Amino acid sequence: MKTLPIKTMVVAGLIAVCMIQCSKSSAGNTTDNEIDTTGQKDVRQIVFADQSVNRVVIADVDTKNVVWEWSPATSNVAPGDVKWFVNMSDAKPVYNNKYILANASTGGVALVRIADKKTVFYAYGGNGNVHSTEVLPDGNLVIAASTGNYLMLLRMDTSALPYTGYTKKITVNDAHNVVWDKKRQELWTASKNKLYGFTYNFNCAAPDLTLKDSVTLPASGCHDLFSVYGKDSLWLSTSSKIWAINLQTKAVTEQSALARVKSVSSGPNENYPTILMQSIDTDQQWYNDKVIDLKGNTVLQLAGLKAYKGRWMLVNSFSYDGTSEVRVCK
Hints:
This protein is mostly beta strands. It contains one helix and 24 strands. 7% of the residues lie in helices and 39% in strands.
């Protein structure tokens, strides 16, 4: 066997040591480069609507580090409009994990580019306690406002901030959620003890919804509605339980008796357990600093976090077609 020269062996050893140390250092840093915006890496990250300081954060489950943060107060949101973003109420990855769609109870709705944290769109959705927002196939948005009892359509327009253009309200009592169904070309929202399905008119200038059908649910007090990863089903949280709605059969089955659940999110395998945000109590502490699974086990806990909802940073193929570019309907 041929022996390498001593000098060559020393250099090789130094390179190996450097590679190990660099790898360790990289794992401990909290930089935006660690964010998986492709949905392809085996990185377990959760995006939170955090009410502690009115922000959106992405946290890594394994390192327990916050790796990304958007705060309207430090972004390109106008100072006078920051008040729209008090008590963040939802945050979800959209556009192939390149953007975050967020909203707040005081009416703010924002589309934020992860790469540079730029707010490319924001608007005021009214004082009806905005709980959820969804992207429609042409780029327009629809929001759900619970105490306002409405869904509201907004045209996607990135040319001026804030958006002050066309809006259209559709009455839905206690509206808490909106989910686009790509397969059926239908918008779902759960309210009281009903699941409603709306068709969309795909009119860029004047977007509108028309009620198509409804499903009677076995419980009332609907809160979160979100796609079950990889299945033709929806998660639903109500006042006292968690359900799964099979959209082919319309069967609704109980999944957990955990109460006060504000959000449900699942993943492709056992490394991504179904995660829940459960409020601490029913009074004023409707947030939590930890994410749990369906059995109540802690998946991630972060000191100081006051998260209302938490969702896996995974590409949502139930609702979206995989485009990474923001669509502006024209």
